[in-house]
Amino acid sequence: MNTQNSVSVSTEIVGDVALVAVDNPPVNALSVHVRTGLQDAIARINADQSAKVVVIYARGRTFIAGADITEFGKPPMQPSLPDLLNEIEQSAIPLVCVLHGTALGGGLEVALACHARVAVAGARIGLPEVLIGLLPGAGGTQRVPRLAGIAVALDMCLSGRQVKVAEALEMGLVDRIDAGDPRAVALEAGQDVIAGKLATRKTCDLDAEADDAALAAARRMVAEKHPNLVSPQRCIEAIALSTGPMAAGMQAERAAFMDCLATPQRAGLIHAFFGERAVANVPEKAATPREVASIGVIGGGTMGSGIATSALLAGIPVTLVEVTDEALQRGVATITGNLDGAVKRGKLSAEARDATLAMLGAATTLEALAGVDLVIEAVFEQMEVKKEIFGKLDAICKPGAILASNTSYLDIDEIAAQTARPEDVIGLHFFSPAHIMRLLEIVVGAKTAPEVTATGFALAKRMQKVGVRAGVCDGFIGNRILAHYSKTAAYLVLDGASPQQVDRALEDFGFAMGPHKVGDLAGLDIGWMTRKRKAAERPSNERYAGDVSDRICENGWFGRKSGKGFYVYDGRDMRPNPEVEEIIADERRKAGITPREFSDGEIVDRYLTAMIVEAARVVEDGIALRPLDVDIVFLMGYGFPRFRGGPLHYADTIGAAELVRRIEDYARQDPQYWQVPELLREMAQSGRSFADINKEA
Ligand code: 3H9
């Protein structure tokens, strides 16, 4: 007998077993119709006693991957998940849950409320709510401690990590692991319950053991690593209550969940979650990507080696080309070191490392690239050098091969014009270290063919990266915006703030590192070279931002690599460089500046406003498809705090009218630098937000 309980839940009675199937593609999220369907199924089976056991399983690629995130921020719809799960737990007929794929968040909480759990081999479980600014809100903080202890609950809830079934079995979160199709596993599990071969019990009847040491360690970790985040703290508080009565713990968990749901952090993190997926929505989406069975990488420096490592890790054979044997050997050694690092981090087995390295070829002539499907040039940033290489590649590479440049700011169209096949030329801008950073700017030239762009996105996916489409301009999305707002940091220092205060204020805002620490880490010589390159085109009325940094570089202090920069480095220690203080004082004197005090708030406001100004222009000029593309570039490539959702999501929390007011206020001091972008002015007038523009796109 089959019953359809809702559009996405159906019941099938097989002998004495009721099989309740959830079918809500793509990931079986717990949308309102799934909740009503489950509620109806459990109530009916209990009412008509049509079975002796109920087994919940899911169709498709995964068990329930959690609550339906698209429902958050909208008016609540009944039944709520915690209420439904209490009903499930109280079912008089025993309930079993079969997990396959990824049983996450609310999905795992459904399983925890059932009376036994069977995992299909290969499944993973997790409570990733913290990654979207929440905590488990349907009993996870109360039932995991009862089944597996407080330490396990803290680990799972605070890391959000996915746990493999073998570990889950050890933890006590699943009762056994079976192989096979979820429906077959479900039927067998149901029959085993009836035969007394699979025990059932209610989680709420168990007690959680106190573990003050684990709670204290978790509080310390959160205070140190996530001082800005609300949900991890609330999560610990809820877990701490699991040793008391279940109802009180559930109530506290619910209150904490609702509080977190209302935070801007939740909105920022969910914007980031959907944004990472939405960036793949590009005009070239329908084009068929070309096959990439082999890649050539030109340049064995840090960038080229990182790109080669990334391709190899994606299972794509690579030919690395360098000019001399010596440079080639250095590149191969860097790649080997990168792979060894992956082995150390547990990402790769020693055997897999050897097999991966076996896919690496090396050559000192470009002719070795005649047969590859895609070439990525990663030599130093000089237009003439790149032009020469692309001219040669055009003659050497087979028809249909894609010719890509990893340039971080140069004109892709000018490079493409060196070839007779500009439609095959594209920018693939990786971020350093390229085998670790997940961002890839895919720079589409005027003549780039749609299938070449589609190939860029397909490659990003294979490399487990997030591709963001960018148009051609100096610096594309990320570096163009960076070039603009980094001047603000310099102006703040010239006008009275110290580099340390600027760094601290922005770190308190949530950046992993302040701009002066980042500069020291990346190498101050990079900015120095860029300033020299752009000196000729700098408008005569522009306030120069490089005085202090130029003087630092003239001393040969390039940051960490030379032991000195804005800071002095001594092993793991770093302290402000006193000589830089003198340089700053000197430059202020020369410019006739009387230093003034800045509050941390003003530093953050000026820095972020400058970032938003150029980001708005990048959207206005069509360099980024949508505001969300800018956000993802900054979250994934520039250390922007994820919980703030990216510069343009953050801009919406300030509002266009206030931003225009601020810019006009700052412009009184420097009208050349502080100019209101047309887009922002129009938004201030019309009341449109960047979120609206995302929706319209
Ligand atoms: C929660 O459960 C709260 C509870 O404790 C309490 C409640 C009271 N909802 O990632 P993919 C979409 S909080 C809605 O590309 P994959 C996704 O946007 C939730 N939609 O596939 C995409 O749409 P599109 C806790 C969702 O195979 C499509 O599904 N759970 C949801 O690479 C495919 O996704 C989580 O945080 C959702 N929950 O990865 C899990 N999840 O095709 C979040 C996905 O239009 N999800 N979509 O772009 C994931 O981590 C991954 O999606 C998953 C699959 C690992 C499941």
Furnish the topology, listing elements before pairings:
Blueprint: E1 2-6, E2 9-14, E3 17-22, H1 32-48, E4 53-58, H2 81-89, E5 95-99, E6 102-104, H3 106-113, E7 116-120, E8 124-126, H4 140-148, H5 150-159, E9 162-164, H6 165-171, E10 176-178, H7 182-194, H8 212-225, H9 231-240, H10 246-261, H11 264-278, E11 295-298, H12 302-313, E12 318-321, H13 325-344, H14 350-357, E13 360-363, E14 374-377, H15 383-396, E15 402-405, H16 412-416, E16 425-430, E17 439-443, H17 450-462, E18 466-470, H18 478-495, H19 499-509, H20 515-522, H21 524-534, H22 547-554, E19 567-570, E20 573-576, H23 578-591, H24 600-620, H25 627-637, H26 647-654, H27 656-667, H28 678-686, H29 690-696
Parallel strand pairs: 3-4, 4-5, 5-7, 6-8, 7-10, 11-12, 11-14, 12-13, 14-15, 15-16, 17-18
Antiparallel strand pairs: 1-2, 2-3, 8-9, 16-17, 19-20
(S)-3-Hydroxyhexanoyl-CoA is lined by residues 26-27, 29, 65-70, 81, 102, 104-106, 109, 128-129, 132, 134, 136-138, 140, 274, 277.
State the end-to-end distance: 47 Å
| Number of helices, counting only DSSP H or I runs of 4 residues or more | 29
* Structural class assignment: alpha/beta
Ligand names: (S)-3-Hydroxyhexanoyl-CoA
Strand content: 5-15%
User: How many β-strand stretches?
Assistant: 20
Fraction of residues in helices? 40-55%
Roughly how many Å is the radius of gyration?
28 Å
Indicate the overall shape.
Answer: globular
Strand count, sense and barrel status of the largest sheet are: 8 strands, mixed
Q: Detail the poorly predicted runs.
A: none
Q: Strand order across the biggest sheet?
A: 13-12-11-14-15-16-17-18
Overall mean confidence score, pLDDT: 96
